Amino acid sequence: MRSIKRRGIHKESQVGIQQTEVLKFPHKINAEADLSSLLHLIAREAANLTEADRASIFLLDREKQELWSIVTLDGTQIRLDARMGLAGIAALNGKIVNVKDVQEDPRFYKRVDAQTGFRTRSILIVPFKNHEGQVMGTFQALNKRRGAFTKDDERVLQTLAEQAATIIQTPELISNLKRLQEELVKENKQLRKEVEERFSTQNIVGTSPEIQNVVRLIEQISDSSANVMITGESGTGKELVAKAIHYNSQRSQKPFVAVNCAAIPESLIESDLFGIEKGVATGVEQRIGKFEEVQGGTLFLDEIGDLSLAAQAKILRVIQDRIIQRVGGRKAIPIEARIVTATNKDLESEIERGNFRKDLYYRLREIQIQMPPLREIPEDIPLLVKHFLTKYSQVMDIKVKKIAAGAIDYLINYSWPGNVRELENKIKRLMILIPRKVITEDDIPEAIREGNGQSTLLRSNTKLCLKKRIEELEKQTILEALETSKQNQKQTAKLLGLSRQGLINKMKRYGIKI
User: Fold this and answer.
1) 35-49 and 151-168 helices cross at what angle (nearest 10)?
2) Which of 56, 167, 253, 477 could form a disulfide with 72 if both were Cys (CB 3.0 to 4.6 A apart)?
3) Taking the CB of residue 171, how many other CB atoms lie within 10 A of it?
4) Best CA proximity match to 337, nearest among 220, 246, 248
5) Has this prediction a pTM greater than 0.85?
6) Euclidean distance between CA atoms 340 and 367, whole angstroms
7) What is the average per-residue pLDDT within 53-70?
8) Alpha carbon 2 to chain centroid distance?
9) Helix axes 151-168, 171-187, angle to 10 degrees
10) Tens digits of per-residue pLDDT, 141-154?
11) Is 255 left (phi over 0), alpha (psi -120 to 50) or beta?
12) Quick one: pLDDT band at residue 456, thresholds 50, 70, 90?
């Protein structure tokens, strides 16, 4: 009983010490003028008061959807995709994250530990906000020395975070912070390049649930050896995902080789993939194929659904045996490569028609990533537009143009049959043709304005948000298609341009039963 009482008294005394030290903190801050010293003081104070091994501060770059460290106790610079890991969850949701054992939490982003050599056991993350209530970044304490981080630790870190946020927002400090960032970028130019390649998921723009799921899945599967099949309509970014899988994996220093199966003549497919020996035909020199070229890396077979049955059989054998023979050769050459494929076809229907091998399909589709068409993720269109405006302003060496809200409305309500690729081409064209700084509604092509822009849906006075309206429209479209096809799921999926599984998933989401 006495020991319990003593522990209670000890806990109260620790809380009292924490509160006292927090009250002293503003005076310590006032004593520091240098930005770097100030930020390190904040981190040290956080680590001391929460009894943590380390503390760090990250700022959120909303445009790049990136968290970057402005201070860590060991001086390591870290950049990471804000949609990944526990810090990303705290930053995007604006809520405290407190995890006792991160190694058992599937949301934990292990690559940061791999980069720094530090092993995180427990973590407390508090988002801090600006005067407008927007999350500016995260403040985190790592590895509680005894037990788990408590509610008192949360309150202490939140108080420090609020004080730090107030300081960081002052114009002078923001200016110094940008200068500090530029210096860090220069000093770590090579490191930045490697990090950007490793975290190339940042090239996958979007914060919709569908795109966030794609990004998380890439992170989960990157270091596995499983074959991946990426499905989706043309222009949805399947090759971009394939590259992200490769550059986010341990194979990133090895080759990434892309092959467009639809563009290779049937007579050349075997020599192109497997290579050819000298003298097979007059004037033919020895040449290695794509499978040899990609040793240790990732082979991306785009439009896999366009391969002939004969070529499919040869690829199946390579996957099974992990060896190849060049055309005209007898030597067995061992192959070690990950195979990522992509298709805009419904391969299950192609199997039923006898156009695609079922055994190859299941070998290639150990993991499937379904890319959503742009019309299903309209909330990502403003982000994509901003991304392309920035991209082509750099390419063309001109100032970044702005786009009027009315013009964005037209783009959001267009159906985009060519998906993200079509949107990118349209923005590029507007950048070239419009000399003004602002792209207006009148600059949007007539086909887009008349096709679906400023629709009745947009003009309605309903209080439903845009996403809810689109969901209701999608549900109604599915119901109408089911009625047209007399409840036949396969025919319904075909009418809607979906895979059968994609239709089933949407029916579950909207509670549609037949």
Assistant:
1) 170
2) 56
3) 7
4) 246
5) no
6) 10
7) 82
8) 54
9) 100
10) 999 998 899 998 89
11) beta
12) very low
* HSE-up (13 A, CA, CB side) for residue 239: 13
Give the residue from 397, 426, 398 showing the smallest Cα distance to 410: 426
In Å, how far are 207, 289, 435 from 294, measured between CA atoms? 33, 9, 44
- What's the CA dihedral at 71, 72, 74, 80 to 10 degrees? -110
Q: How far, CA to CA in Å, does 377 sit from each of 207, 236, 371, 474, 512?
A: 9, 11, 11, 11, 20
Q: How many helices (H) and strands (E) are present in the chain, helices listed first?
A: 22, 17
pLDDT at 16 over 60: no
Closest by CA to 500, choosing from 367, 360, 348, is 348
Strands 123-129 and 97-99: antiparallel
* Neighbour-count burial of 183, counting CB atoms closer than 10 A to its CB (0-12 exposed, 13-18 middle, 19+ buried): exposed
Residue 246 falls in which region: left (phi positive, over 0), alpha (psi -120 to 50) or beta: alpha
Nearest to 33 by CA among 130, 159, 161, 173: 173
Rounded to whole angstroms, how far apart are CA atoms 271 and 75?
51
Lowest mean pLDDT among 25-29, 256-260, 283-287, 298-302: 25-29
- Contact (CB, 8 A) for 407 and 443: yes
Instruction: Match 């060049």 to its residue by tokens.
Output: 326
Task: Read off the pLDDT of residues 458-483 as tens digits, 9 standing for 90 and up.
Answer: 433 333 455 566 777 778 888 888 88
Rounded distance, CA 415 to CA 418, Å?
A: 9
Tell me, what's the pLDDT at 3?
45
102-143: pLDDT as tens digits: 988 888 888 787 777 788 999 999 998 887 788 888 999 999
First to last CA, the chain: 64
Region of poorest pLDDT, from 70-84, 218-232, 263-277, 498-512: 70-84
What average pLDDT does this structure show over 397-403?
85
DSSP 206-274: --SHHHHHHHHHHHHHTTS---EEEE--TTS-HHHHHHHHHHTSTTTTS-EEEEEGGGS-TTTHHHHHH
- Mean pLDDT of the region 225-254: 90
Domains of the chain: 2-189 (3.30.450.40), 201-370 (3.40.50.300), 375-459 (1.10.8.60), 466-510 (1.10.10)
| DSSP at 327 | B
What angle do the packed helices 489-496 and 500-510 form, to 10 degrees?
100
Tokens of 438: 């602002």
Q: Which of 336, 305, 308 is nearest to 321 (CA)?
A: 336
